[in-house]
Amino acid sequence: MIRHASDPDSGELARKRAAVAGLYEGVQAVLSPMAGVTDLVFRAVCREHGADLTFCEFVSADGVVHGNDATRELMELGPDEHPVGIQLFGADPASLAEAARAAADLGPDIIDLNFGCPVRKIVKRNGGSALLCNLPLMDEIVRAVVAATDIPVTAKIRLGWSDGSVNYMETTRMLEEAGACAITIHGRTREQKFSGSADWGPIGEVKAAATVPIIGNGDVFSGADYLRLRAETGCDAVMIARAAIGNPFIFDEITAAMNGAPWQPPAVDRVVTTLLDHMQREIALKGPRTGLNRMKRHFASYLRGYPRVAELRKAVFASNDIPTIRSAFEDYRSAHAGIQIESAAPAGETVS
Ligand SMILES: Cc1cc2nc3c(=O)[nH]c(=O)nc-3n(C[C@H](O)[C@H](O)[C@H](O)COP(=O)(O)O)c2cc1C
After folding, report:
1. pLDDT digits (tens, 9 = 90+) for 192-215
2. Which residue's alpha carbon is at the smallest distance from atom 29 of ligand 1?
3. If you take atom 30 of ligand 1, which residue's CA is the nearest one?
């Protein structure tokens, strides 16, 4: 067979694929890449609760290439942080290849390419889900990144741009041929953004045809959802996004579900202790201002479903004084020690 110059080297690709297949053998639940959420601290917190693989927030390839410090900071990994993936987005193959080389120097286990982001700012510049409408360019990007680095490359997609242009089978086939070592599928189109419910049928269809690990994603908010997604699709692992915000316990819940053990959300004491520890580490890493802003993303979700939180919520959102916020949580913990709930309301957070 004559190999095209841009075909991934088959021996090298086989090595990368074996590495990723081996990695996913030990992976059940994955913490999704989430912009503004999955920083170094939150990834560590989720790992401590049972996330088997975590991803950094997505990183602009152009930002990396232009030496933007804030962008490079997003790729910072912990000293023993494995397995972990760095996700890149962009639309220029050369820039993505250069960014992948910079990312590879930091030692991730995976470099993931974002082909699913629905946010207008990204799509306008032909990145994220816009590439679902331009498979030749997506193909070029994957080949360029695969050729640029020794680290295995994976991809994350949606079902297509819209109901009228669903193309997940064609996209996943192309991704495999271009050298992707695993594919995550969010069961929505770009036009759906976060509306309606995720369609898991296509994840099963792709899994039945694929030769690389397929990771299912979309609307997993409980251990029962996790088991259902795996059973209905046969996917190799499940990626969790919104359910993890302010709720690293989702990974404990999934572990319990896998073991057939009963699950009850943690008592107030454990929730507040986890939140305060998370806050402390976030502030130590990012400084008081950014650390607190990051935590405000999580506060409401940590407390969702627990009794009499309205006043506490008001107090912590009104203040930027860390000792005041800490005391408010400590007082709540003392007043409600031991209180448990049956199940938290499902998370409903979305991005544009
Ligand atoms: C706040 C937020 C930020 C996100 N950022 C990213 C991102 O950086 N990269 C990415 O591939 N997906 C991102 N997503 C999408 C999620 O990874 C995931 O595909 C989507 O939320 C569906 O999964 P879920 O139902 O478990 O939330 C983000 C989602 C949210 C809610």
Report:
1. 999 999 999 999 999 999 999 999
2. 34
3. 34
Cα(240) to ligand 1 centroid in Å equals 8
Q: Which domains occur in the chain, in start order?
A: 10-258 (3.20.20.70), 268-335 (1.10.1200)
The secondary structure of 204-229 as a DSSP string is HHHHHH-SS-EEEES---SHHHHHHH
CB 339 within 8 A of CB 305: no
Angstrom distance (rounded) from CA 208 to CA 284: 46
85 has which bridge partners? 55, 110
Tell me whether residue 117 is one of the annotated catalytic residues. yes
Q: For ligand 1, what atom is nearest to the CA of residue 217?
A: 23
Nearest-atom number in ligand 1 for the CA of 219 is 25
Q: Scanning the structure block, which residue is given the tokens 């199940």? A: 343
Torsion angle defined by CA atoms of residues 276, 282, 284 and 286, in that order, rounded to the nearest 10 degrees: -150
pLDDT < 70 regions, the chain: 1-6, 344-352
Beta bridge partners of 113: 88, 155
User: What pLDDT, in 10s, does the model give residues 157-188?
Assistant: 999 999 999 999 999 999 999 999 999 999 99
- Distance from C-alpha of 184 to C-alpha of 41, rounded to nearest angstrom: 23
In the prediction, which pLDDT does 348 show? 45
Q: H-helix or E-strand containing 99?
A: helix 93-104
The response to whether residue 283 sits with its C-beta less than 6 Å from ligand 1 reads: no
